[in-house]
Amino acid sequence: MPHRRDILKGAAALAAAAQLPAVPEAGGVRATGFESRFVYRSAQRPSYTSWVSFFPGERGQWYLTCEEVTRPAQPLPRLSPARWYEFGLPNGYDKSSLRMEMVILESSDRMKTWKVISREPARFQHSAGQFGTARTRDGRFLRFVWNVYSLDDKPHPGEIFYSSSDNGVTWRKQPPFHGPELISHPHRLRTLRDGTLVLALPVGAAWGAGTSKPVRTARDMAAPASLQMTLCFSYDQGRSWSQPLPIYPGAYASETDFVELPSGDLLCIHNSIFARPGRQILHRKGNSWWPGPFEYAAAGRVPETVALSEDGILVGCMRNSKYSWSADLGKTWQPLDGIPEAITRSRECYQPWIHYLGDGRFACAGHYGGDDAFGKVDQWIMIHSFRVETLHRAKETRLELSRDFDAARGRWLNAFTLKLSSGGRGVAGKEIELWWVERNAPGYDSFGKHTLEERMKMGGHLLRVRTGGDGVARATVPEMDPVTDPHKSYQIIARFNAGKQDPGHQVAQTPLFEFYANSVY
User: Fold this and answer.
1) Which domains does the chain have, with CATH numbers?
2) Tens of pLDDT along 87-109?
3) Pairing between β-strand 411-422 and β-strand 398-406 as defined by DSSP bridges
4) Cβ atoms within 10 A of the Cβ of 2, count?
5) What is the pLDDT of residues 197-212, one digit of tens each?
6) What is d(CA 323, CA 337) in angstroms, rounded to the nearest whole number?
């Protein structure tokens, strides 16, 4: 994974498939009872306690992990100049002479108080990367680390997995997770309802002396991305793991999060730290997973950690307390009202990790500050807690587009019928946008290179029609009627409430159709 500073440089059918109810739309959700609670900092000032994992235990406990870095009385041996060159970090980010420890804190009283139960020495440059940590149902800790950042002269980058059977007192290194030709940066480890463990594991080509990438910051310009996000699954409490399943094809992703849907499928969220954020659903069939398409987000800032309530509300957090919510499984996002302005303007909850606790309650952990050099900011660990209140519910909305057919002439017309419905009934008096563009004109795009908004700015034609009492509207594209070339086509798409002007209904959009202008049966 690059240094974190480098990183910063129809919806209704989907909801039905996931067995989710109709949910609130714009302005329909807010946070109440917000509280920021201090958890931990080291005794040395400025304190460096950062990079949390946050996860439940098997008997109602909760756990937080962090890295604690302190300045020892006698500096530890520094990296060699050659090894420092390979890492390619900014000045001030060399931690080789400092003491690093991986700390685990436990709470047995619903997160009211915390105590340190494990403190493991760590020899890593910049970060141990222990974001992928979990507690199994049989009481073991599983920990994944960034061994590519090890201070060893020749670390095996696949030795990333450790386990502890004695509450974190001792740790046993497991066999290499992958070969030395690859590097990985474990990011998220969550437990599903049936105990299945899911590990988000970005994987890339090895770097360093003797490889095609002599330094960490080198990039292969022939590759669309230097890291491929994958998911690995364990069905036996971490004793064995599946082959990695790639997600987000062609997209760079070193960090991600995911939630289990009521159907048992997995909703993966590609956040707005990266270009072209979006989502992808993995459909579960027993112990196999079938990836649906990667879909770009239609609106809003996509958070980096997410949790799902039982009434279908996705709540997420972007670093430094930027909370948002989604009513359509991550297709669109909007800011979460009710978070105190002092918090949203603060540096709290960097690199956040959120959980849903039930009964409308959420908890999100992170550290104060950012990707700071040691000694620059007094960092500490906090937990935010709040409830999410539903003010009103938007109605499920479905939009259909069909091309009209002239049976007498055996010809499909350049005319269309649009039907807007909710709960199986037509929705009257609503404006529908219809955008179309002919083949090879500005805005036409067969391969999805640009977003719809980008394409609409490039060109094409925008029509607006209104539904009648039966929820039906009609539109024509007479410009295509004179066409005789059988290969001449155009693309067309319809959408409703794209700007969320109607808070009573969900956003609805058809697929992008491509039709031949001269189409005879």
Assistant:
1) 4-9+11-390 (2.120.10.10), 398-520 (2.60.40.10)
2) 999 999 999 999 999 999 999 99
3) antiparallel
4) 18
5) 999 999 999 999 889 9
6) 8
